[in-house]
TrEMBL record:
Name this protein carries in UniProt: Carboxyl-terminal protease
UniProt cross-references to CDD domains, sorted A to Z: cpPDZ_CPP-like (cd06782), Peptidase_S41_CPP (cd07560)
CC terms in the record's Gene Ontology section: outer membrane-bounded periplasmic space
Enzyme kind, highest EC tier: hydrolase
Native source species: Piscinibacter sakaiensis (Ideonella sakaiensis)
Amino acid sequence: MGAKLKVAGWVTAGAVAGALATMQFQAIARSPVAQLPLEELQQLASVFSMVKSDYVEPVDEKKLITDAISGMVSGLDPHSQFFDKKTFREFREGTTGKFVGVGIEMTMEDGLVKVVSPIEGSPAFRAGLKSGDLITRIDDTPVKGLTVDQAVKRMRGEPNTKVVLTIFRKAETRSFPVTITREEIRQQSVRAKIVEPGYGWLRVSQFQDRTVDDFVRKLEELAKQEPNLKGLVLDLRNDPGGLLEASVAIAAAFLPPDATVVSTNGQIAESKATFKASPEYYLRRGGTDPMKRLPEAIRNVPLVVLVNEGSASASEIVAGALQDHKRAIVMGAQTFGKGSVQTVRQLSPETALKITTARYYTPSGKSIQAKGIVPDVMLDETAEGNVFAALRPREADLEKHLNSGQGAEEKDEAREKARAEALKRAEDERAKMAAGQAPKPLPEFGSAEDFQLAQAINRLKGKPVLVSKTAVERKPDATETN
């Protein structure tokens, strides 16, 4: 990390809609007040006065000002945001990986919460919840009809409070209640296993405070289980991003120390920086380098990186760096395309401003913004093809998205056609669900049914790979840039 960015604080990266943003975090940073447009400010004051005096009912002055700030910032791009007390707390929870809850990694299946995995050592883990368990009720509330966010909010709460989960365990064909006491949970953002002799799988689901330590620990475990590791799959699918310094560290595990991982460029001097694969660019002041514990063989182990439309920002940085340096083969689908840097400036102990200050670039100088990383090998989601991949939003689909800064964007007619076909399939699936025929869910990442992982292992072993026959490089939509 450049010296100026080091002084400024820590940096994070991610996307939108279930993702974060690439950010530099600054504590109460004040820039010189720019020359203000007095006439427009007078209009703002006049509107504030009229609303306060003439609106049909009394309004909260502080809320008016907060809404005005939020509107001003949200009009810039999808990632700039004013954090009030609640949203700032949620943001910090997202980057630290800590929250108060029961401790499960979850997804939704048939309208119910499905336990992907209980977090080791968590209340859910100690209560005996298992992978594949379905949660049908949270206290007295049926889960059917709840969104993912609503279900999560009901399971989270204050420390030492209790929540009753009704569990349906398919293997035992029975339902039973489990009372769990909430406590602070530290999310596990790294999972790993030996897929078959000689070949490992390591998944990073988000780049958080503990990700680098967890990453090193998991690689150490893999090396002990399989001393003769012949190949490794680094799985970044659906990884929305997180801490930029963590992404630089992960890339550094596989690159020489002088290799460029990512560069940033914007209007202010602090936004112009280059990050290399050496400790001074990813270590916090006074920290020890966990990368020193990595087995030396990891730097040279054959590597495949799996990505998809949900891989954003920090995960795109890692994939782009390893691809540009020809250190890994990138497989999967074209990534989200979130390539802008947001600086988080704290305004008070409980509020902050997140504002876009730069774009970031791969080592070869390519802007990821609104385009993403194009895999070396395109893969479908399943052996039968893609299901609804074309319907997943990308950066280029977001209103007021920032353009790449590297020339005009082109209309992507192939993607529009794919979206129309996916919409038709979605309508057909809804009709089947109405008739009581639930669609087959996509397999869990890392499972024996994970088609893309199987193709990645085939690539590492030199076997044939079932390359997508329909996926093509997607171009940003020129009609939706600002």
